[in-house]
Structure formats: structure tokens, C-alpha cells
Specification:
mainly alpha, 9 helices
Length: 186
């Protein structure tokens, strides 16, 4: 959160708890004491949740609620495995894991239920027609781990320019789907 967002957030808190006394210095103090480390949308969601059962709010309660919110997001998501080529580079592997956890905590990772098993719809396979490739269909059940692509389950892989691949999927996605041995994979 930025200092400007902290001012807007304290105004939001004041609207949620009009009976609570907030001084002109409150945004600066709360920013320095912890809001600087919190995303504005997380703070707003935490405050909204607290408003349901708190008559007054402290910064400590708010920060605890943000932590609980982020923990819930992580528990609803599946940690994607870093790229296999990072296995021999522990520092890069650890950085990839850290980035994946941060993405999950911010709510940008897919819930476990979505990642569990994705079957392409009948409509999708009908539209694919002659281009219906069993390797592509099998690969789209998992997300593509290739950084420029990052296709979600159910979506086809794209190249660095954002255009659809002519190959079934990226090699990393085929490996993630357990299909690396299929002929014709990129």
C-alpha cells in the first residue's frame, strides 16, 4: 500500500466505524506501523470482514485479519512445481517457489478444485474439428509452466507474441501433463 492508499483506506475505516476516533495523523502512523507491507485490496477486504463483528478496530486486528485472509488463499490453492530445469539451481528453484507462494497469497493462483482435473468441453472439441489433437487435449488439463505463456487449464498454449501454438503444447506443459514421450511434441 502506498501512503496515498493509506489515507484512502483510513477514510474507508472511518466510514465502516464512524464511532471510532481517527486523527489526522492516523494514516501516517498506520502506514509506518504496518500498512506499507499490505496490499490495499487485502486491507479493504479484511476491514470489511471485521466490520461484521467488531465495534472498533485496531491496526493489530486488521493486520491479523489480512494474514488470515492470505493464509486462506494459500490453503485453497495448489503450489505449482517450478520448472524442471531449475532443479539443478537451488537458488533459482527457491526463488520460483517463493514467487509462486506470493502469487497464491495475493489470490492469483488457481484453487485446487480447478487444477484437479480439467476436461475440455464437448463444444471445445467439436469446434476444434480437424485440428483436434489428442496431445493438445491432454495437455490443456494442466496449466502451462512456460513463463511467457502461462496458459490456464482449458486454454491452449501461445507463443511469446501471444499467438496460438501450432504444436500441441509447450514441452514443459507436456511434461507437466505426463505426455513428454508423445511424438510430435515441441
Amino acid at each position: 500500500m502506498t501512503p496515498v492508499e493509506a489515507v484512502k483506506f483510513v477514510q474507508f475505516v472511518s466510514a465502516l466505524w464512524p464511532q471510532q476516533r481517527l486523527e489526522d495523523e492516523t494514516p501516517d502512523a498506520w502506514y509506518a506501523a504496518g500498512l506499507k507491507d499490505v496490499e490495499a485490496r487485502d486491507a479493504a477486504e479484511a476491514a470489511t470482514r471485521l466490520a461484521n463483528h467488531k465495534v472498533f478496530i485496531s491496526l493489530a486486528e486488521l493486520l491479523s485479519e489480512v494474514k488470515a485472509l492470505r493464509t486462506e488463499r494459500i490453503s485453497r490453492s495448489a503450489l505449482p512445481a517450478p520448472a524442471p530445469e531449475l532443479a539443478d539451481r537451488p537458488v533459482d528453484y527457491q526463488a520460483a517457489l517463493k514467487d509462486a507462494l506470493a502469487e497464491m497469497a495475493q489470490g492469483f493462483a488457481l484453487p485446487k478444485q480447478i487444477m484437479a482435473k480439467v476436461e475440455p468441453s464437448t463444444e471445445y472439441t467439436e469446434i476444434r474439428g480437424a485440428d483436434h489433437d489428442p496431445a493438445r487435449i491432454a495437455a490443456i488439463r494442466v496449466p502451462c509452466p512456460w513463463p511467457p505463456c502461462k496458459a490456464l487449464p482449458g486454454a491452449v498454449c501461445v507463443n511469446a507474441d501471444g499467438r496460438r501454438l501450432s504444436a500441441p503444447a509447450h514441452e514443459a506443459r507436456l511434461k507437466a501433463a505426463g505426455l513428454a514421450e508423445i511424438e510430435g511434441s515441441p
